[in-house]
Each structure stands twice: as C-alpha cells, then as structure tokens.
Specification:
The chain is mainly alpha-helical. It contains eleven helices and two strands. It is elongated, with a radius of gyration of 27 Å.
Length: 331
C-alpha cells in the first residue's frame, strides 16, 4: 500500500486549503508534515543543485539581516519560497573558496624578502657544490641519546628534486629512530620526512594548495558536529536533530557570505585589521540573535550558551584543522 503523503487540511507554506492531492495547487509544495528527514535535505540538493533558481537571490537578504528567519520558516514547513539550505550552503561556500584571499601588503614584503634570501642561499649552495667532487647519494644522520639529531645545514637543497636523495634521507631518519621501514610508524615517518623535504624545496606551494583544497571538506564534515553541539546546548527544548542541521547549514552559509563580502572589499580596496574584527563581531552577534529566535529563549540564555558553544566549537575547529594539516602533509 502506498504511503499517504497528505498530513493536513491546509498548506503549511501558503495557507491554501487542500483537497486530497499530495501537492498544493497554489504553490506546488508537497503536503507533508513540518518535520523533514535528512534524506529530504539531500534530495532537495540533488534535485536543485545544477538548476538556476531565483530563490537563492531571494534568500540572501533574509539570510544576512534576519538571523534565524530562514531556519524558522523551513522548520515550519515553508520550503518553497526560499532556497533549500543544503543547496544554499554549497553554492555560497563554493564561491567563497574559489575567490582568492586578500593578502596583507606586509606579508607580501616578507615573502619577497624570503624569496631573495632563498635565491641567494641557493646561489651559494651551487657555488659550494661546484667545489665538491665526492658522491652525496646518502646523507649522514647523527643520533644521540635523545633521538635523531639532523642538521639542516647538511641538507643539499639543490638535490631535493631527486627522489633517490630524498628517499635516502627519509630512510636514514627512519633507521636512526629505531623503526622498521615496513612498519606502520616507519612508513608514517618516511612519508612525513618526504613531504617536509618536498615542502621545503618548493617553498610550501603544493602543500598550501592541497590544504586549501581540503579545507572545504573539513568544514562540510563539521556541519553535523556543530548541529550536535546546538542540540546539546538546547537539550531541554528537545529540538529535532535535523532542525539543528538546518540551523547549522544556514549559519555556516551566513559566515561564508560575510567573509566573502569582507574579502571582496579587501581585494578591491584595501586590507585593514578593523575589517577582521567587524566580521568576527557580526558573526558572533548573528549567532546569538539566531539562537534566540529559533529556540525561543531570552537574550541572556542565548548569550550564555553562545560562550559555551563558541569555546567548544573553536576547540573542535582547531583540532580538525590540525588533523587536516597532518592529513595533507602525509597524504
């Protein structure tokens, strides 16, 4: 027997009186109850992700200036007028990570100085290398009571592009650490040394590029974690976890949109620390107001929960970033 979709006599989106149809004749929304499943979020994303939808533009203003409004509307069953949360998150985050980050002029100056220093050092190394005739297929690693003692001054930076040379250094470090080359930790140390030396060779360009590619994945996996924290801090109200996921999607979409705006301003005009503080303040105030509206609580309670939630999430975010850095470095 087919599942009965009809749940009410009135459309929760537009208020139109419904007949026995499974869809509203006025706005087209499916006639189901207000609580949605995770699968419905994914289905909305798959159905709408690659199609142009003017609802996204209609959703930007309330997302920015009405904290918690879109979440409340979606949880109340009004899901036709505005863009689906998962689709909105993906599009905004995609644009955010595609736009280059504005660089501080001071950082550019430091990078320029470092580039000159590295170039000068390489020229000196080439001069020294021309005076040497012995074979350097291996590099000596001295070990002491406190572990591996490796002096970077012994490193031939002109040969870091040679796989044999890099493998020799990595294997010697593994051996001097007392690890078996085919063991798990031996392979981990070998891989880590190999990646560090290659990072040193190209100034970290490939590592930074790989890390930038992995950050969006990290943030996506943090979405349900943030939703879990939201649910834990509002356990007395017993919100559905899927409603917390929707809150998380809207909030992170807002964060990326704000950071994107300030970054575009910095790219077009100038960079200033004041902009960073303004963006952080805007993001923090937004979260307090959004929690107050969605979970119907006082500002006092919302502010208290904000501090606890922020500390927990910042710790989780930092730990996730460290794991992402190590994963990027080793793989």
């Amino acid at each position: 027997m087919a599942k009965e979709l009809r749940k009410s006599e009135q459309c929760s989106n537009c208020g139109h009186i419904l007949s026995d149809d499974s869809y509203c004749a006025s706005c087209g929304q499916q006639n189901t109850d207000n609580s949605v499943s995770i699968w419905l979020l994914i289905k909305d994303f798959i159905d709408d992700y690659f199609s142009f939808d003017s609802r996204l533009f209609k959703s930007i203003a309330p997302l920015l200036f009405k904290p918690g409004f879109l979440t409340s509307e979606f949880n109340a069953g009004k899901r036709v007028k505005y863009s689906p949360p998962l689709r909105m998150y993906f599009i905004i985050s995609l644009i955010f990570f595609l736009v280059p980050t504005a660089e501080d002029p001071k950082e550019k100056e430091i990078i320029s100085i470092e580039s000159v220093s590295v170039s000068t050092k390489k020229d000196k190394d080439v001069a020294k290398e021309s005076e040497k005739t012995e074979d350097h297929s291996n590099i000596d690693i001295k070990t002491g009571n406190k572990g591996v003692n490796f002096n970077l001054s012994d490193l031939d930076t002109n040969r870091l592009s040679e796989k044999r040379y890099v493998d020799s250094i990595a294997n010697n470090i593994v051996d001097s650490a007392g690890l078996e080359r085919n063991s798990f930790w031996g392979k981990v140390v070998f891989r880590g040394v190999d990646r560090v030396l290659r990072l040193y060779d190209d100034g970290g360009k490939k590592f930074k590029s790989d890390l930038k590619d992995n950050i969006p994945t990290m943030m996506f996996f943090l979405l349900p974690v943030f939703a879990l924290f939201i649910r834990l801090f509002h356990y007395r109200r017993k919100p559905l976890y899927v409603h917390c996921v929707i809150f998380s999607l809207h909030y992170h979409a807002f964060v990326f949109l704000v950071l994107l705006f300030f970054n575009l301003v910095a790219l077009a005009f100038f960079t200033d620390d004041l902009f960073d503080w303004l963006s952080v303040l805007f993001i923090c105030v937004y979260l307090v107001v959004a929690m107050k509206k969605v979970f119907e609580q006082s500002y006092g309670r919302a502010i208290m929960k904000f501090f606890g939630l922020s500390m927990l999430y910042i710790f989780t975010l930092s730990l996730s970033f460290v794991v992402t850095v190590l994963t990027t470095l080793l793989y």
